[in-house]
Write a structure and sequence with these properties.
Tetracycline Repressor, domain 2, homodimer, three-stranded mixed β-sheet, elongated, disordered N terminus, mainly alpha, 3 domains, CBS-domain
Chain lengths: 451, 451
């Protein structure tokens, strides 16, 4: 894929320089919109408006949707009002909303001025829902049927209005007061008698989401039920829009990236890494580093308060990194597993005792094996005194056990009190486990070594 | 959702005890297969066969597909040969393959014996592809059209054969030697004249994958192109199957979970956490903990070799945790960002210099802010000597910078040489950065403090 793209943008660049527009157009129309947008990204921005104008209207609009916001803004700025209107007329309303949400205010004004009145109304409708809600990612362009229609009337309606709908494969049956009363798939329509009634073939056990549902919840329902589209209803069960599976996949990827960023102590951003400026990346990372640095100084204070003991037994210092790292790793294993389970809905708060009991046993096993391995190594390789080995290994055992328990329970508690469990991943667990393990270490050392 | 399920399984349990089978059946048929499977999971296994037999044939098969492998095995063991055959006849072939891949050998034999000859042949076809390849997740049940058909002939064919196809919304046009020559959507069929030729309305710029492509690559293409199904071809471009979007979503979730597990130093497993035994979880975690523990002892050796210096300046010990943790966190931020970018194809190896240059600048900024903040704290709060503060802060600065550089470059190198970049996430980066930062610390200390 990459290799082809690399040679493609060089080729396109040189065709452009020699003004072979017909050839360029012939080449571009064989390509998929997502690939064209990919090639555009690699080209100097000055050539974009010219290339874009070579595309046939529909392909141009589809390509426009796939571009990143910088290319989009660049193109819109260069568009005449008529050109802007042409692109807008081809967009689905949810894509138009995405565009508006990412453009600066002056561009938004121009877009809304050029959009057809009906489109403008739909855009404003969707814009009023909170960010990341089902309402904000839905489209209002769906096929609407009535229960008393026949299959052939329904098919006729699809033929008449289908071209502008985001999907025609799932059709929504509503009552005159816009309440959703059934769902008919295009498959059911095609496989039924043409004079069958919609009310007879429609699925009446409807799974839908509220406009206020979080987009992550909607995406998980696609994962669970395998739908191609999901109806979005208001509090009175009136159908207001649908979410399609391609948008659900985007949400899944976006939410997962967000989870991973939070777990790595980064403030999430919606822009891809290579399109984010150095200063923005810095701002995503520095607050957490500062916060965690301050917490780590508490661990340092524990060491300071045992300075005399350490001076008497400097050998103990050498095992601090091993204890801290092993504790941190044990804790992360548990916390990352639980955070992921929670976000896939595989684990719920009611499972807290099963989880803790399981981690307790896993922690026992891991702690035993790690401290036994370490004990042998300390005696045979490092040749330390047996009491020192005992201090290190018993600390290791308790640390691993505690790390597993802290690692599994903090994300569940966070979920329970309404925080994002991902915050309770590696960095925080590590900081907490570090402090715990050092306190244990010196406590056990003072007991066993009498310092 | 959860609340409803909890009360449901209590209700079902009590209806079952009072033998209200008609009521149970009426209740179950209003439910979605995925929800029925969810309720079954909460019920005592002894009641499953009875409940399952209450379901109408098609719903029974759909529910069966949604169950976890333990429930499936339990049911199959209780099935008569006729019952097994009935369920198998309703399954799509890719679901049958999933089932076979997870059942023990004795159950597999029974399944293959009861499967219809045609189904058995398709199953064996798919089973020969390597695990996690496009071939292994595809289905062979697609709608096949010929270029010379008219739209009405195509629709007739869909009506006749469509009920057994996994999707009818994307139809595949092949030549007599089975080469894929075009794609027609059901939307195009419905919106075209009934006597138009398929060859005139089909899309000829086909995006397809090879049978050997990795499932993750296939899933990313769904993400990029927004398809509902993707054709899978062999090396001669003959169509052998299709992958549908619902399976692509499963792959995305599965691969992401795997990435996260590897990043947290866990050997990935395909079973959900709560369905994995304590000993299996232990085995997923202990090898990495042992390996990382051994690497951490190198860090300990660095401390040992500076034991005398430390004995002279015990105050230096107190800052070891802060240096190690901050270095580890800085490195993880970079590595997790890059690992995720690589797996979404947002970053490629050719971007390595852009990435390193960016991380260098981000590292400079982070290092400056962190060491400045620390310097002030060391002088004002901890009241250490200015030379000690200088040692700690210059070490911190260089550590953060190095951590960013190591964190971003190791995953890219891993990708380049064909390893999984996720292995180069937090734990490994932390271990490397720990060793680096301590070496620096003592080097700088011996220079500035003359110890």
């Amino acid at each position: 894929m990459t290799k082809v793209q690399i040679s493609l943008d060089v080729m396109i660049q040189s065709l452009l320089e020699s003004k072979k527009y017909a050839t360029l157009r012939d080449m571009l129309v064989t390509m998929n919109p997502a690939d064209i947008a990919g090639v555009f990204l690699e080209l100097p921005s000055a050539s974009l408006p010219l290339l874009f104008r070579l595309l046939p209207k529909e392909l141009a609009a589809d390509t426009f949707v796939e571009m990143d916001e910088d290319c989009q803004e660049l193109l819109i700025t260069g568009f005449s009002d008529r050109e802007l209107k042409e692109v807008l007329d081809e967009l689905y309303v949810d894509d138009a909303v995405d565009l508006i949400e990412e453009m600066p205010a002056s561009v938004v004004k121009r877009i809304l001025r050029q959009a057809a009145p009906e489109m403008r109304q739909m855009i404003n409708e969707i814009l009023k829902y909170p960010e990341d809600s089902a309402g904000s990612i839905m489209t209002t362009e769906y096929v609407n049927l009535r229960p008393q229609m026949t299959v052939s009337e329904a098919l006729q309606r699809i033929r008449r209005t289908g071209v502008d709908k985001e999907t025609i494969y799932t059709c929504y049956v509503t009552t005159p007061d816009r309440k959703l009363c059934g769902i008919v798939t295009a498959k059911a329509l095609l496989l039924s008698d043409s004079d069958a009634l919609i009310s007879d073939i429609m699925e009446e056990n409807i799974i839908s989401v509220q406009t206020s549902a979080h987009q992550e919840e909607v995406a998980l329902m696609f994962n669970k039920y395998g739908f191609l589209a999901m109806p979005v209803v208001d509090q009175e069960q009136r159908l207001v829009g649908i979410v399609t599976v391609d948008d659900a996949i985007d949400v899944i990827q976006e939410e997962t990236t967000e989870d991973m960023e939070i777990m790595a102590a980064i403030t999430p951003s919606e822009r891809p890494y290579l399109r984010t400026g150095v200063f923005s990346t810095f701002k995503q990372r520095i607050p957490w580093l500062l916060l965690l640095m301050v917490s780590a100084t508490f661990t340092g204070m524990i060491i300071s308060s045992f300075e005399e003991a350490l001076a008497a037994q400097v050998v103990l210092t050498a095992f601090i990194p091993m204890l801290m790292d092993t504790g941190g790793n044990s804790g992360s294993q548990a916390s990352v597993t639980i955070v992921r389970g929670l976000s896939l809905n595989e684990i719920q708060f009611k499972d807290v005792f099963r989880v803790v009991w399981k981690e307790f046993r896993v922690g026992l096993l891991c702690g035993l094996v790690l401290s036994a391995a370490n004990f042998v190594k300390l005696l045979l390789l490092d040749r330390v005194a047996i009491t020192v080995a005992a201090v290190v290994c018993s600390t290791l055992f308790v640390t691993v056990l505690l790390a597993k328990l802290v690692g599994c329970s903090l994300p569940m508690l966070a979920k329970k009190v309404g925080f994002d469990p991902a915050v309770m991943a590696s960095p925080f667990i590590t900081t907490i486990v570090d402090a715990l393990s050092l306190m244990l270490y010196f406590q056990i050392a003072s007991m066993l070594l009498g310092i």
